[in-house]
């Protein structure tokens, strides 16, 4: 970047191109074009400097559960900033917002006598939890019990450990990831991974046997935990078979391996229950939260852990004389105030019930496509749904140029003022709107989507990507 080009950059879009290293994009293209600048929001809509109003049916990154104009969390954050803007919760100090939030969350989660630890992002929460499990096992005299099981196609975050837990290949490529000791198993996605003619029951049997055999091969005394998303978001909104999680949890328990629920997407109402674990019959030993925890108004995340984990950490602290872990901004009082207000709004307005009322409406809009010759499956729960494309419905053959058609659907939607997610795995698009969305706004979304879908399919046929 020359001094001259920097001096000539006046708009936010031009300056974005010159000064930012963005994420989830092609960096060369972004440096040429910059990004569209978002200025403000109105319920489920965002507005840009270019005068566009877009309905964000992806909640930003699955995160803006209360939309983009709810005053409650903002007012709580402002009030906390004016009262007491910052302090940590280590070194024998704490503050009221973090104590209030910890108490409320501990009483909400389906873990008896839970202890709460705070972080800033979902990636940090998952990363910290792995670190804690290693510390706990060291305290128990099991320093080699460190391996982490997870699913292929899963997403658990961007830090080195969280990305290693994730099973999306393109997020590993070039970064020299995953680290050793992170093991990826077949995800409970029967549409993509069931064998020809294999029943759902047989599919679950096979996945359970895969888990059992992998534990035996690795040695149970080397495996600390298995981390799972109750409903796999980035994998394509995969709702597991009904008995999958109860069965794998029984296997884990038999081998003294903990079960971790990554509730960063599914927590606080997204699935039509307060927690995704309740939707899929999972009884976790630990849970991680972010995104909808504060409706994304302020970065804040948390870990809820069963007493067995906390007791192990306490033993380690006694062994070493000090629990040498901390983070400057973890449990920031402003973030805690915003999260506390978010939880109040979710409960007082019965947003979980609202999700259950809106879910069939969103489902019905997508299921109009289930007989389309290029739609392999429509699936989802609550307010997270996906539509997966296929070249051949009977063989589930992928489209040519995998991902291109789903990406073009997203492009055509954007042209018409609708934001959806084209996911990192296959030709799958996802709808995960703010939990406050109403029927009229769902209708608005699909007026835009229907036209965009048809135009994108036409585009794909012209290029030979579909028949």
How would you portray this structure in words?
With 467 residues, the protein is α/β, with parallel strands linked by helices. It folds into two domains: 36-69 and 351-462, Aspartate Aminotransferase, domain 1; 72-348, Type I PLP-dependent aspartate aminotransferase-like (Major domain) (Aspartate Aminotransferase, domain 2, 3-Layer(aba) Sandwich), CATH 3.40.640.10. Helices cover 42% and strands 15% of the residues. The chain contains 17 helices and 15 strands. It has helices at residues 3-8, 12-19, 27-33, 59-62, 71-83, 96-108, 122-139, 160-165, 190-193, 200-218, 244-254, 276-280, 307-320, 333-348, 351-367, 404-415, 439-462; strands spanning 38-42, 45-48, 53-56, 115-119, 147-151, 182-185, 223-228, 258-262, 286-289, 301-305, 375-381, 384-389, 418-419, 421-422, 428-431. The strands form three sheets. It has a seven-stranded mixed beta sheet, with helices on both faces. Helix 8 (160-165) links the parallel strand 5 (147-151) and strand 6. The mean pLDDT is 95.
Q: Would you tell me which CATH topology of the largest domain applies?
A: Aspartate Aminotransferase, domain 2
Q: How many individual β-strands?
A: 15
Termini separation: 45 Å
Low-confidence stretches are none
- How large is the share of residues in beta strands? 5-15%
* CATH architecture identity of the largest domain: 3-Layer(aba) Sandwich
- What helical percentage do the residues reach? 40-55%
Radius of gyration from CA coordinates: 23 Å
